[in-house]
Specification:
heterodimer; A: alpha+beta; Alpha-Beta Plaits; four-stranded antiparallel beta sheet; B: 165 residues; elongated
Amino acid sequence: MTPALLDDLDRRLIESFQRDLPLCPEPYAAMAEALDTTAADVLERLARFEALGVVSRVGAVVAPHRTGWSTLAAMAVPEGRLDTVAALVNACPEVNHNYARQHRLNLWFVVTAASRAGVRAVLDGIEDATGIEVLDLPLERAYGIDLGFKPSWS
Amino acid sequence: MELSPTDRRLLAALEDGLPLVSRPYAVLAERVGLAEAVVIERLEALLHAGVIKRLGLVVRHHEIGYRANAMTVWDVPDASVDWVGRALAASPDVTLCYRRPRRLPAWRYNLFAMVHGREREAVLGRIAALRAAHGLDGVPHAVLFSTKRFKQRGARYFAAAEVDG
């Protein structure tokens, strides 16, 4: 997917509704009205975004630590084991983001569970299975407001 | 705000996203055994209370051409970390900005700011501009570009049993 495959209305849809999805019985119709199109067109575009992976979902982003616990975890994995360890981490349903990054600590992932103990159990399980220390870096404070992602299309 | 069992059920049912049908809140309402109007009222209340940060399209930056994803990390003295965090968060180049604990000696950085862009060079340029604009030249920092995305999806706070329960 490249930005060139998104037309002008696609872009306006993405820019306008990362926050403030209308809270009325027919939200997609309300969005369509704001974009001067039809509800069927909005639904077709959203279905295409989801199929292409442009949008992971139309839904809620929950504030950290309000409904459960989460942490950012980091590991220094020997380069030859990176894919194997990443697959083991991915297999945990509590892991929602998992990235290789350029650093001595080269594997970074987010663990989310109903409780702090639940998160700790996942980290302990990964340490036990790999023999590699897992750094536990829970959020202490969030700054600013999550506005979503503001793309510049040029 | 303490979450009621009803609110937890609602948030659990919402974790996979709203259905793409003309009345999505009615579908959600049916799943959790509430009236459509009550679902809308509870979502408004959860947004107002800050439990839900935002309701809308959750965009995957890589798929719209933002291939350069940098986690910038900073070792800011504790006395000024909140001030610097607020300043970085206010920049249009920073999508998320969080304070996290140090883990010495393995990890010295206490402030994390995500910077996304199409090209690595452009992202490095923006990070240099952030350093200059906020007087961070003397602050130890590192830039961790992602080299591979193994997984990216929404958080699941609730056990599967709760979704149906």
